[in-house]
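Milestone M4 deliverable, item 7.
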Amino acid sequence: MREAANRSHRTLALVACCVFCTPRVEAGGDEPGALAVVQSPRSLPPREREENRTPKPEAGFPGREPGTGCATEKAPAPRPAFKFACDIGFSAGGGAGAGDVASRSVLAQGEPAASAVDAAREPAGEDGIGGARQDAPRKPDAPGPDAPLGSGFQWTLAPIRWGGNLASELRLQGIEDQPRRLQQVEIANIRAGTYLWQPWFAQVTGGLGLVTNKERGSGSEGVTNPGAAGSNSTSVTGNGTLALFPMSRFPFQAMFDVSDSRASGELTRSDFRSTRIGMRQNYRPLEGNASYVASYDRSTLDSPTFGRDTVDVLAGSMSRQLGVHSFDIGANHTRNRRSTSGEGSLLNRLTARHGYRPHSALSVESLASINTADFRLLSTGAVTENRSRFLQLNTFATWRPDEDVPLYVTGGGRVFQSLVDNNGVESEARTLNANVAANYQYSRNLSLTGSASVTQAATDAGSDLLTVQGAGVTYVPDPLALGRFVYNWNATGNVFNQTGGRDGGRQNLAGQIGHNVSRNLPLGRTSALTFTLGQSYATTFDTVTTTSQTLLHNASVSWRLSPTPSSSAFVSLIGADSRTAGHNENQFRLVNLQATGQIQVDRYSFGAANLTIQGTRQNTPTTPGAGFSFNSNGSLSYQHLRAFDVPQLRYYALYTVNETQFRSRLLGDINAPREQVNQSLEQRFEYNIGRVELRLTARLARIEGKRNALIFFRLNRQFGQF
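Output delivered:
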């Protein structure tokens, strides 16, 4: 058995040497060409290890072939053979040091010979290996025989983690004003990750993918017809990340990513190809009181429908703490270009912040910023150009003389300048302001306020200097218990005086009184309802405008639920009605529904909510309202990890809504999609069999105001460990 094991070891060592080096074989001996594996002394039994350490006069020092990483030597007679040593690692000094020797594989035939590592450790002998080690020629920069093992800079092959997936998808998509599409998508991806030299030096990850698409259009009746026009396409995707010194004070990261919307499962009206590249450099000095960041990102979307949309973002920031002073500086340059429509934007921003806090009673914050924006937009078929520049400097200070003194003082100053050019029509404005305010808590229920400000405003039409002085009083008594209800009321009065401006002197007197009643109704041990009804009346007298009066009614109901320590939910409904008579006559109504929280229904099901729905309606004598205008934002989700009581069968439902209209990519958001998904309802079943994943998905959505329906089935097979 030992002979069989030795024979196996010889075969493996021979294969390893053939992979990593190509030695030059010298002729010699009675059995030329016969090669066998010589085991390292560490891998031999104790008796053979001692015999192997005995110097043999026939053994010569292995000489290194010029230009190669392999060394050869003749084996001892009477069994002539050859011994090869290959350097898998390379020393930084360029010579053959102990770092080289430690990574050699030796091949020989006949009697086991001492390995190169033990030869380096043995003392010099007359004719032994140790003597040959000293007498052999060596480069001048090679370390001596006493050099410690592992010295030198070695490049080694690190472990590689790899994996990937193979997927096949069948999609049926219907888009408003477009023919129905049937797509068969095949996806193949492979991913790998490793490090260079040491994990703290460089970490590398990468992937390569292939996406093939077979598409067929719909017939005139909306039913998929194999004879209808179709297309086939192939797309190559990939990604990679390089992290240098990731655990240091100066990590650097570079990345690229090329993806296809058909492989990502994004909800969109048109297929597109996304390309992302980015670099980021961080630095933190040894003292730890500062940090510096510089980054560059580019996002490009390519589609036959909308052409090419590119966003470039160059950013940098600095933060530093010096005793009681703190500094923050940030700069950002963003450009968006759209090839088909000709739209684009150029945004530049520079901000600087300074904080000063000598002690807990005094705090001063200063902010300076410069913003420039150039927009080229397409509106109703016409191109409009808008350029703007905003410069401002703000300082805000707070002071509280003592914790026992109920006085709180704030003050600040502001410099603002704007320049706006809209299609060649230019306007400019400048504002200088200084203000101070104080709040004195006379008692637990009564507080007094006072303020003063000076403002100089200059426009193209002229310049005005305004001064405003004001004083106010607020009284909030303790709540009153009326049975199971809680009653609160409050009163506020303010007086203002203004000098300067176009109107000259101006005085304003305002008062407001309100009350509300609320009740908390427990519903068991885990939930409760809260009801609130309120009413307020405000009146304002102004020497320039007429008197105005406002009557406000509001009502709210909220429900709190906490069935378990890890589950909580909150749902509230608020309604308000405001009517103003006199100056600025109007009617305003508001309805707001909010739901937040997460609930563990049972062992396998879980729900979450973060949804806000708000409706508003405003009427004026000149613009009567047509009805409520609703705006929604948020999401609702539900998942069941054992649908229909079938193991590994999962069900997901997700509803998302965002009715706010915006153009994030034009505003410099590099992660924003090209198209805005206003509403989406998705239901999905997933089933796993080992590494095989099955998915059936149905989506109903509204994208850029148009309906979109999608049904697709996905079969995915994972492999590897990455």
